[in-house]
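Morning!

As promised:
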Amino acid sequence: MDTIWFILVAFMLTVYVLLDGFDLGAGAIHPFIAKDDRERRIVLRAIGPVWDGNEVWIIAAAGTLFFAFPVLYATSFSGFYLPLIIVLWLLIIRGLSIELRQHIDNPLWATFWDATFFIGSSLLAVLYGVALGNVVRGVPLDADGNFFQALWTNFSPTNPNPGILDWYTILTGLLALSVLVGHGASFIAVKTENELNARARRTTRLAWFATILLTVPTTVATFYLRPEMLSSFSQRPWGIILPALALGGLASMGYFSLRGWDKATFLSSGAYILGMMASTIFAIYPNVLPAVDPANSLTIYDAATSRYGQTVGLVWWIIGMALAITYFVLVYRLFRGKVNLEDEGY
Amino acid sequence: MDEAAILASRWQFAFTIVYHYLFPQLTMGLALLLVILKTLYLRKGDEIYNKAARFWGKIFAITFIMGVVTGIPMEFQFGTNWSAFSEFAGGIIAQTIAMEGAFAFFLESAFLGIFLFGERRFGQRVHWFSSLMIFLGTWASAYFILTANAWMQNPVGYETLPDGNLGIDNYWAVLLNPWVFIQFMHTQGGAVVTGAFVMAGLGAYYLLARQHQSYGRLFVRLGLIVAVIASLWQLFVSGDQEGRQVTDKQPVKLAAMEGLFKTESGAGIVILGQPNVEEQTLDNQIVVPGVLSFLTYQSWSAEVQGLDAFPREDWPDNIPLVYYSYHIMVGLGTIFVAITVIATFLLWRRKLFESRWMLWILMLAMPFPFIANTGGWLTAELGRQPWLVYGLFRTHEGASPLVSSGNVLFTLIGFAGMYLIMGLLYFVLMVREVAHGPEAEDEQQEMPQGQGQTT
């Protein structure tokens, strides 16, 4: 049951990255691919009806994490105090940027919110990568199971008291940025036509190339810093399909992108993200929060709530997720197709 | 644990939650009014209802997004600032917090997208249906989060696990906590009061300014009818029930609310007075004898326990603030009843739209429901102190052990600065929407595409 909840929380976080990932990516590229106000409004309209719903996944995932693994929630959120509050500020700025830009028709107003949308989106993409990097590298948990990380110490991941930022987590942050840029660009390509579409495709290819360049050193560094992650794959060899999915996604993303098949490119990018997230989660299991000193690592068994709580949770979770997925299918179907600015909205 | 860090975390939570709740109380009230407007449009077919719904839909959307972005920090702060509490009680309160995400937020976000972007594409029935779903979503969200709060006020359905933390023992007891029914009635009533007063107040402004007068009359009429029902509901049904519940389950909170330091038979109700905790008296008091005993125990001479009946360490740690918050809420609630009853009488006599003095009052009343709702929540939460979970877990045990006061002050100042700017932006946008008025949408739609069209 602990394992089931571990998988369900991981599933929700992965869905969050897949969905909010493309609107974060869209934010990170929109100053570069959208050249005038009309094109910027098209980019915003492409994510307009869905970004808020995408973001609900992080709220729902955090809530689920909170009840299924209260100890993990408490430990990680307080330990990552500063970066998490910064994430909150960025989420606030970014949400306001998307919604408020359209309310005043003034070029300075629009430029201001374009800038905050860009900054918020790209920093969030980097920070999510940094966060995942921190979990993989391990955090300085003490014997009581608490930690508090400064934003940086000496930028070395082998420091017994590492900061949020070190060369390894910066690397994972940059990888996340390039992955989400590719994800967002391929989504914008699906939703647009003409020059905007062409520029989005070009950006997708650039991001694809950068992702390859960054995936290699990140993977090497991961197994260098955390050799025990390799043993997860040797103990449970079937897990190898997960990195294979990531590689396959990356390869087909390049192929479809050269062919100009936008939807297939977007889906391949999603497959890469899914593969990478699942591989990471698979490799750290049964830890949920590895510690610098492995003896202090938090496992799913230490962190979970009561069996009864998990069982009743499972019942409503299945109903709730079935409903949520129904809404998502409905909304994405209703708003399928290229963006048309003539449609109303306010 | 570091006292300064606990205090900073309390300030941060209090500040961010008070600020956050300014927005949902308006959206929950407006959600109901939007459903009414869309229903009127479908039944009567008069375009004015639909334009009014679109206008309030815009106000709703801006307010909603403010509520969303200020709401995310609330969930995260349980973990960031109150990790000891989260470990202790997460297995219970997070059940309903997670359910809020699964059942309410997904629903709201999906149908808000359809409501805002899909009226022309999907037609009026879908548009009406999406307004109904938004209403259900916002109110369901309130129910789930109130269940978490209700459990902290009145813990039920829990067991102590081997590691000393609590686990859920009876799901339905937590979800159907008797505390939550009354709390839900009173909180939602308060939200409707806010939404209805804002609608009526804005209508009064349009009438006074002689702009958009047909809309002004509609807003005043609809807002007022809803406001009078909601204001009475707050006093006679839900408020009264809320008072009895507190008397029954949290008598020390009641004593602090009333500024009753000494146990009394035939206790009076305080109209005015300042609690003096040092001397344990009420300065400059105006008291109507016997009324408190009657309201709480339905007997003019019943004994009401004062603060002296409880050990000092169980007293709320800020008695004056509990007392003032409560009295401001009740005082304003009484004034709302008076205003709306008189205005409704004028409306019935067909004199309201000519009675400019009453329109002035309705317009100026707009901010006060926000203050009353805030006062109510301060009463509930400060009155729960010194407990985080009533009777089980004290506030000073709950903070994150390794987060320093300096770090919390840094983020508190950051939130304060950011929220100040957001408040200004919100105000500017509201003033603009009000100045554009309900007809603005059409003017823009008739303009050729690309010429100043806001989308």
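The radius of gyration of chain A is 20 Å.

Hope this helps with the figure draft.
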